[in-house]
Task: inverse folding
């Protein structure tokens, strides 16, 4: 049984030099996943916050890579956007995005990836119920940052909830269910393939 392990730890080399390279590759891969999912964007005419695949990518990256690597992956993603690469939703870029209405969500991505990664390291991603809870907690963390910052533009928390939370609940529930279905199934597959012992 792997203790304090995530998916990324299953095939991690024991050699320090190789393991450092392995971690770097996974961090970059997580960044690419978030970037690709950011391309999935639906603009809501009544809200400055678009519906995107970013939230799913951030949560799943944290779960797959763990707290440290997941957090670093999101940080690298944000750094690329701030430096001008068009990685944010709808191909946007620049430091100005962090200062805009959606900036709080981007900061919340870092915290959410860390929290979900930490819970995954404790084995929460291996059972459906705890996987759902991990995704819900990660989403709450993400929205806490996003809504507090958005309220500065919306005028109040109540207005921020209407613009940046309520319209996104159905989509987030779908993402949570999807992640909660995939993660435990993956562990069962690894066990079946003999890559891990029964967890």
Result:
């Amino acid at each position: 049984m792997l203790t304090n392990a995530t998916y990324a730890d299953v095939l991690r080399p024991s050699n320090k030099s190789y393991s450092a390279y392995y971690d770097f590759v996974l961090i970059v891969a997580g960044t690419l996943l978030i970037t690709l999912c950011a391309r999935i964007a639906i603009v809501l005419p009544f809200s400055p916050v678009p519906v995107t695949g970013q939230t799913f990518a951030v949560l799943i990256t944290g779960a797959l890579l763990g707290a440290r690597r997941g957090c670093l992956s999101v940080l690298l993603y944000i750094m690329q956007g701030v430096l001008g690469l068009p990685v944010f939703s709808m191909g946007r870029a620049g430091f100005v995005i962090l200062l805009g209405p959606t900036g709080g969500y981007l900061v919340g991505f870092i915290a959410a990836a860390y929290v979900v990664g930490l819970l995954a390291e404790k084995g929460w991603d291996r059972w459906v119920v705890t996987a759902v809870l991990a995704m819900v907690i990660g989403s709450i963390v993400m929205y806490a940052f996003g809504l507090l910052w958005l309220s500065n533009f919306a005028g109040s928390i109540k207005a921020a909830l209407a613009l940046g939370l309520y319209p996104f609940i159905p989509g987030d529930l779908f993402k949570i269910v999807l992640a909660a279905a995939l993660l435990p199934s993956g562990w069962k597959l690894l066990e079946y393939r003999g890559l891990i012992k029964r967890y």
In short: The longest helix spans residues 128-154. The radius of gyration is 17 Å. The CA atoms of residues 31 and 147 lie 24 Å apart. The longest strand covers residues 41-42.
